[in-house]
Amino acid sequence: MKKTDPLPHPPKAALRFLAWFCPPELHEGIEGDLRETFEQDLQKTADNPRGSDDYRISRARRRFVWNVIKFFRPGIFLRNKFSISLIPTIMIKNYFKVASRNIWKRKLYSTINVFGLSIGMSFCILIYLFIRDEHSFDLFHVHKDRIYRIESVNYSQEKASKGETPYHYSSVQAPLAPILKDELPAVECATRISKESGIVQYGNKVFNEQFTCVDADFFRMFSFHLLAGNPDKIFQTAQEVVITPAIAEKYFGQENPLGETISIQGETESSFTVTGIIQAPPGNSSLDFSILLPLQSQESLKRNSDNWGGFRYATFVQLREDANLQHFRENLDRIVQEHMADRIALWKANFKPPADVKIFQYRATPLPDIYFKNEVRGSSDRVSDPQYSWILGGIAILILVVACINYISLALTSSAGRSAEVGIRKVVGAYRKQLIAQFSLESILLAVISMVIGMALTMFFLPSFDEFTGKTIRFNTSWLPVCGFALGLAIVIGILAGSYPALYLSRFRPALILKGKSALRVKAGFTKPLVVLQFALSFFLVISAVIMMRQMHFIADKDLGYNSDMILVIPTQAWNEEEAVRTADQLQAALQRESAVLSTTRTNNSFNRGRSVYAAERYLVDPYYLETLGLEIIQGRNFDVNNPADKKKTAIVNESLVKAMEWEDPLGQYIDSSRVIGVVRDYHYRSLEHPVDPMMLTMETSEYEIPRYILVKIQKTDVPTTIDRIKSIWTTIAPNKPFEYSFIDQDVAMQYQSYQRWTKIITFSTIFAILIASLGLFGLTGINTTNRTKEIGIRKAFGASLMHIFIMINKPYIRFAVIAFIVAVPFSYYMMNEWLANFQFKVALSWPLFAGSMMIGLLVALLTVSYHGIKAALVNPADTLKYE
Amino acid sequence: MNKAYLGEFEELVLTMVCILQEEAYGNAIVNEIEERLGRQVNLSAVHVTLYRLEDKGYVKSHMGGATQARGGRRKRIFTVTSAGVALLRALKEARIELWRLVPQLNY
Fold it and tell me: What is the pTM of this model?
C-alpha cells in the first residue's frame, strides 16, 4: 500500500513537536533542512538492495524523529522563549534600575513594606525550622523502621458511653518484654524502660537525680552513641551504670569515670560501677535520659516480674528484617489470650463491653510515630501536640498576610505616581506582559530584600524561640535548605503581593493617562476590603491577647483559699515511712526553734509537686498544716497535737466532699473508715484547670503516705539568711542527702507555664501585627490625603473647619474598623472559648472584654490616621491651590 | 571573553559558509563537511552554530527562493560578512605565524 504513495511523509507528530518548540522565524529553514535529510535518507536506503520499502521508509522516519529531538536543545528553543514572551534581556537591567530607584525614592513606603514583610518572613522561617525539627524526631535511629513501642488499649465503659476513644497507655506489664523476645522469633531485641528517681552520691557530691532503667538490649536497638564502653557487654550484671558526659562532669569533674563506683539510693541503696559513657540524646529524640541503670537492679522489677496486672514499663521491640508486621500483631493478640485470660474474663464480667469490642489489646506503634502520639497516656519524655505547629503556622501566615496587604494597598493607592511611567512605556512599545513582568520583578526585589533582613531577624529571634518551644534548633545545621525555603518564600510572596498591583497598573490606557494630569486620580476599589481584612486580622489577635492576658491575671489574682506567701517546700528525700517520719520530726523540731520560722508542717503532696498530684484526694498532714497555709476551719476542729487519738482514723474534709457525700452534719461521719472531726473551706490544692474535688486531710501515715515535704512559713525579712540557716539544720539532720527547696507560689505558677508561654507569643505577635498594620495604615492615609490635597484646599477655601476636615478623613477608617470588628468577634470568641475550656475557673467572655479590645484597636488606628488628618487640615489652602 | 574567539567547530562551519557561497544552508554544510572531511556532524549542531555565528555578526542570513523539494520549505541561506572573512583571515595568518615558529625539522 505504501508503494502507491509517491512521497512518504515524515511523521506528523514530530513536525508538530518541532513547530511547538521552534522559534517561528527559524522554523521554516529548520523544517526544510530536516525534510531534505529525510529525502536523502529515503534515497540512500533505496540504493541498498537488501532493504524492503517498508523498512527504508520506517528507518528514514525514525531518523527524522531522532533529528527533530536533537533540535530540542537550549540553543534553539531558548531563542523561542525570549522572542515570544517579549522580555528582551536588555530591559531586565532597566527594570532593576527603575525598581531600585523607586524603592529608594519612596523610602517611607519601602521601609513600611520591608519592615512588615521581613517580620512576617522571619516568623515563617521560624515556623519552618520548628516544623522541620518536629518531623525529624527519632529519625536518627538506624533501626527506626524495625522498632515498635508496645502500648496497651483498655476498654472503658465511661469513655465508651461518651463516645471517646478508650484508655491508651504507653506502658505495659513487666513480663511482656521477656516473653515477646523468647516466644516470638520475629522479635530480635526487646527492652523495657522505666523512670525512677533517687539520690546519687559520689564522694561529697550528693544530688537528687532522675534515672532511666533499661534492659541490656537498649544499647543494641537505639542509636545513642556510646562514647566509652562495650555495647555488647554493658548491663550483663545488675550493678552497672551508664552516664552522659554532663553527669560525668558533674560528679567526677576531670577524672576518668570509667570503673568508678557511685551510690544510688532509691527504693534501696546500692552501689553501681560506671561501665559506659553515652552521648546525651539529641534534641530531636523522644527518649531522654542522663543516667542509665540496668532494670534488673530494681527491687520493683523483682516484685513485678510475673505480675500481669501492673502497667508501668514502656516496652520497645525490634523486629527482624524479614519479620511480618501483620503476623507480629496477631501474635500480640495471642499473647493476651495466653497470659491474661483470667483477667480479661474478670473485666468482661465487670464492665460488660459490647461483643465486638476487645476489652484489652496491645498495639505496636513504629518508633518514628511515637513523638506525635500525645493522646497516648504516660508517653515518652518528649511528645508533641501537632496543634502547636498549626497554631504557630497560623500566626505566621496571619502576620505575613497583614504585611502583604500593606504592600498591595500601598502599591495600589500610590499607583497614580506610576501611571505616567506606564503610559510612556506603553507608548514606546511595551506589551502588557512586559509591564506585568516589570512590576512583579519590583515586588520580588522588595521581597528578597525583606528576606535578607528576615533571615537576620530569625537568627536574632531564634534563642527566645527555642526557649519558648523548648527546642534546641540551631541555624548552622543545614542552613542551605533554610535559605532555599526563604528564597522560595520571597519569590512566592513577591508574586502574590505583586500580582494584583501589577495587573492593575499594567491595565492603564496610555491615551487616558497622557492626555492630561487631571486623569491622575485612579480608584482602586479593591483596597477597601483588603484594609478591612487587615483590620479584622489585627482585631482577632488583639481580642485573643486581651482575653489571654485577663485570664492570666485572673489566675494570678484569684483567691486560692490559702495563703501561699513565703512558704518554702522542702522535700524530705526519704522513700520509706520510718525514715520520712523521722526526718520530718527532727527537721520540724529544729525549725520551730528558729525565730525566722513562723510555722512548719508536713504533707505527702505539695502544690504541683509529688507524683500523685492529680489523683490524690487523701492528704497526709499534721496539726500545723491549716495554720501554715492559712486555711480556715468552718466546722468542727483542727487536729489536736496533744490528743494522740487524732493520729489515727480521723480526718478533716473539704466542703466539696461534704457536698458530694450530701452530709447534713458532717461531724462524726465516717469517710474511708476515718471519723470526720472538721471541715475546711475549699482551697485550690490543684491548678485552676481542675475543679476543687473532694479531698480529706489525715494524720495517718502508711507505706504509701509518708511525709514527703515539709512546708515552712518564714518571715519576709532577710530570706537568704533564713534559708542558709535551714540548710545548715538540714545538713546536721540528713548529712548525706541533698537540700532542695522551692516556694509554693513558684510551684503554683509553674502549673501555668505553658499558658503563660502561649499568652506571651500571642501578645508578641499581636504587637507585631498591630505595628505592621498601623504602619501600613499610616502610609495609606498619607497617600490618600496627598491625593485629596486639592479637595481639602477647596473645602477649606469654602469655609470647612479644621474639625470638619479631620472627621472627613477619619470617618472611612472608623467604618472599616467597625466592620472588621464585627467580622473578627465570632472567630476570636470561638478560639478563646476553646482555649478557656482548659480551665475550670476562668474569666467570662463578656462584652466589655470585646469592647475594650475594640477600643484599643480603634485608638491605635485613629492615632495613626490622625497624623495625616491633622497635617492635611492645617495646610493653608492658598499653598495647595495657587497653581490652579 | 575575547570577542574574536572562535571554537574549532565554529571556525569549520564559518569556513564552509565561505566555500559554499550562495548554497550555504544547514543541510548543505552537513553534506559538505561529510564529503570533504569524512566527518559525521549533527544537523542541529550546525544550525545552532550558524545562529551563534549570526549573533556574533560573522554571518548573516536570508531566506532563499521556494523549491519543489523540501516539502516546499525555503532554505535559510547564510552568507559570510566582512567581519567573518576578516576573522577567518586573521585566524589563518596567526596560525601560519605560529607554524613558522615551529623548528622546521625533518619529520
Answer: 0.66
